[in-house]
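Risk register update: the risk of archive-format incompatibility is retired. Evidence:
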Amino acid sequence: MIKVREAIIVEGKYDKIKLSNIVDGLIITTDGFGVFKDKEKQALIRHLAEKRGILILTDSDSAGFVIRNFLKGAVPADKIKHAFVPDIFGKEKRKLKPSKEGKLGVEGISQQIIEKAIIASGAHCSSEAGIITKSGDITKTDLFIYGLSGGENAAEKRARLKAHLDLPSNMTANLLLDTLNCLMTRDEFIDICEKLFPQES
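Archived output:
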């Protein structure tokens, strides 16, 4: 089990049940889009963000990113960590059919993938084995140099990089940069880019 200092924000009760078996920490649900109108829930999340920080772990579909972006607008950026589950297609066992976009939500993702996502977020984690998080110094200039921003094929290249790293396809360039700095050092980033884009770099 991973102990996480930040309060973890998930979408629904089944996500919370899933996380409760993986994480030792406070887990708060947004009740889907319910948080948009729930002023008390918003106030609670802002309070937790101020006191201990929050870690957002929503589904990788469009709805998950709408909720994630809403919370980003409600809480100071330095109080938020982001954990992402990859785009994995399928359906949860309790459901009769897949979601609208056909992607598994947090509740349907394996424990190993969720643990990896939490560790990669840069959250304050600890476990019996110990947790090592990386804080790189990758910049927007580095993204530009490797054609990941500002160029004609930047979106396609970002898609290739996200697929290589098992990151969701909906992630923006700015969010990708923040995540890369949690996942790896600048040297590791350069090494990956040289392998993925050998002729373009």
